């Protein structure tokens, strides 16, 4: 497996510890095991959506949304129709 776990865990910790509010992963190759950090940010859902650069690729995102001062977490999987063929 070519999973750069230290970088991904660091970005995840950044989301949980309020340094960022999202991270975005993508597959670096055709292998389902080759997942890598693509981007992260702190400017909300619009910024996250703007970082989905290719609507033919699969992306996985972890997003934190504050609700009444309490963090809520959302795991998002973007799967394009072409991946279902």
UniProtKB/TrEMBL annotation:
<dbReference type="InterPro" id="IPR002108">
    <property type="entry name" value="ADF-H"/>
</dbReference>
<dbReference type="GO" id="GO:0003779">
    <property type="term" value="F:actin binding"/>
</dbReference>
<protein>
    <recommendedName>
        <fullName>ADF-H domain-containing protein</fullName>
    </recommendedName>
</protein>
<feature type="domain" description="ADF-H">
    <location>
        <begin position="1"/>
        <end position="85"/>
    </location>
</feature>
<dbReference type="InterPro" id="IPR029006">
    <property type="entry name" value="ADF-H/Gelsolin-like_dom_sf"/>
</dbReference>
């Amino acid at each position: 497996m070519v999973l750069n776990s230290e970088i991904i865990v660091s970005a995840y910790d950044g989301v949980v510890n309020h340094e960022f509010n999202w991270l975005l992963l993508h597959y670096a190759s055709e292998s389902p095991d080759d997942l890598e950090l693509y981007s992260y940010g702190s400017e909300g859902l619009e910024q996250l959506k703007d970082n989905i650069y290719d609507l033919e690729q699969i992306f996985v995102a972890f997003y934190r949304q504050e609700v009444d001062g309490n963090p809520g977490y959302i795991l998002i999987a973007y799967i394009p129709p072409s991946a279902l063929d």
